[in-house]
Amino acid sequence: MPILSLPPNFTHKSTTIPIPFPFKPNLRLMGIQQPLDLTTSSLFLKSCIRTRNFQLGKLLHAKLIRSGIKLDAVILNSLITLYSKSGDWVAAKTIFDSMGHHHLRDLVSWSAIISCFTHNGMESQALLTFVQMLLMHEEYPNHFCFSAAIQACCNRDNAPTGEAIFGFVIKTGYFESDVCVGCALIDLFAKGFQDLESARKVFDKMPERNSVTWTLLITRYAQMGLHEDGIELFSRMLCCSFMPDRFTLSSVVSACAELGFISVGQQMHSWVIKLGLCMDVFIGCSLVDMYAKCATTEPMEDARKVFERMPNHNVMSWTAIITGYVQSGGGLDATAIELYCKMITKGDVLPNHFTYSSILKACGSLSSIEIGKQIHNQAVKSGLVSVNCVGNSLISMYARSGNMEDAQKAFEFLLEKNLVSYNAIMDGYAKQTSSDEAFKMFNKFKETQLEVDSFTFASLLSAAASLGAVGKGEEMHARLLKSGFHSNQRVCNALISMYSRCGDIEAAARVFNKMEERNVISWTSIIAGFAKHGLARGALGVFDQMLEAGVKPNEVTYIAVLSACSHAGLVDEGLKHFSSMYSEHKIYKELDQLVIDIKRLGYLPDTDFVLHELDEKEKERYLVQHSEKIAVAFGLISVSKTKPIRVFKNLRVCGDCHTAMKYISVARGREIVVRDSNRFHHFKNGSCSCNDYW
């Protein structure tokens, strides 16, 4: 990736001509006593449009009507633009129609009304008006009319009409002579036809380009996911001595975020500083997103610095930083919730649907159901609870917390349910062992026009596995073969798990062997399947193959390997792998921190349970290494926070470990279930179900 810096002979090319205004809009002008003249009124209207002070412009219009002045085409064209940009297309059309009665319409009038319809989402009406202009022979279209008509074709439904206009433009020669028409054509191919290759050809053939042209194509590359092409074009833009603006830089920063190009992103940050755009909230949001996605050391550190330096925060910047913390993982969801609370407390910014969606995901990850319910209430009050992304996040949050009743209510409340909605509710039922409900929901899903995806199949295969219903699993397997998902990695992993849990390890192995690409979940699933069926040597053999393939085992992999060794009585093999796991996953560190935390709560090691002749410190250290504590420490770093930690032991649990478990359940806020030779011990909130008698 080239260093994006100014060339030595850089000169700023700009085609922008500043338009001087003799005054700013001022209400005092409305009180002047002398008759209004058309020149002053025209300048005043243009100033109102430039500053978006539409109400003041409308007041002037009313005053002009009362004055009885005969309005000329210049004033009326400005009024069409004023009403168009304020969203009142009806008033704009009324003025345009009245101009026809008085033969005042010119090319500017036609261009203004066509742009008005396009700007207000009435692309078909814009094209009808363009055709009307041609049929009435009032005016022959110029570059402004062509640009306005082409913009109306950027809607996919009107793209075929765009081809006809494109041919018309080529015949008239405006493509070679006008930059605005060229920009409109780039947008036509990029947005209307989704054809960036043709858009690039238009760009390359343009005899003249300006900064807007470069920025437009760079932005379209970013929006279509062709990020490297966008960055390459930006580099060319600099070499051609064109100055980027806030939109250019924001698009390139977004491209860096998606590609993980932190070094280029930092260069973009330098550009932002050079151009004095540090105070720009729009660019600030892009930088926050880029640093959040490209963190190389401390997650979110640089993103937080950019956020804190922004002079003002709007809903976009708050959402960007909150989303960054949620997506970074690593236990940063709590910080996201803190930031959300800070935003609400300040009171100057209201969350939007993207904010709600992100913060609800954080609540789901932490199982913070009470906070989630409060945010749910806020979303209801804001009227955003029925928006898909908010409703889908609510479904996932309640499902992850085990509250399927409220998850179902959130699902039913959605006005329009999309694929994500159905996947979220089906996955929730599958994971909460309500697998029959998952299949009932799938039957409802089949009544819609929605298409299944890999998440749908993975959830339903998980539901079949929970039921032990190999028949349902095979039915899903047949469906996914017809749908073309047989080589999808996520689906194959779910198939391996389903077949092994339903007792058909041979089918699981066949799926595994046919996979073209395997990840750690694929390997772990088949190892766990072999272990479950007592095929310890097979499990260990696959584990060795996994290491040879360069795939790094995770905590669940080691559990599967240890399970295989345990079932087959392979003590030496088990000890070897446990030793590897012990150092690899830093259980020592977790154990040491656990002891510190529970001592603060009042835990005192009972060294009477150490029978060796050692000094007290050594005895304490020996107690820390008891198998129950090691197993719980491993569970804390490997088991989802929403699930209890389960430990099985073939000997009676020692008294010190029993006491420690009670403190750990408080220190970590987790449920711990230990099965020893006598009974089950269910530790929760500092107490054990055995009432200290076993």
UniProtKB/TrEMBL annotation:
Keywords: Repeat. InterPro entries: DYW_dom (IPR032867), PPR_At4g14850-like_plant (IPR046960), PPR_rpt (IPR002885), TPR-like_helical_dom_sf (IPR011990). Residues 602-694 form the DYW domain. GO terms for biological process: RNA modification. Coiled coil: none annotated. It holds the Pfam family PPR_2. GO terms for molecular function: RNA binding; zinc ion binding. PPR repeats lie at residues 72-106, 210-244, 314-350, 418-452, 488-518, 519-553. The keyword Repeat applies. Transmembrane segments: none annotated. Belongs to the PPR family. PCMP-H subfamily. This is DYW domain-containing protein. The lineage of its organism: Eukaryota, Viridiplantae, Streptophyta, Embryophyta, Tracheophyta.
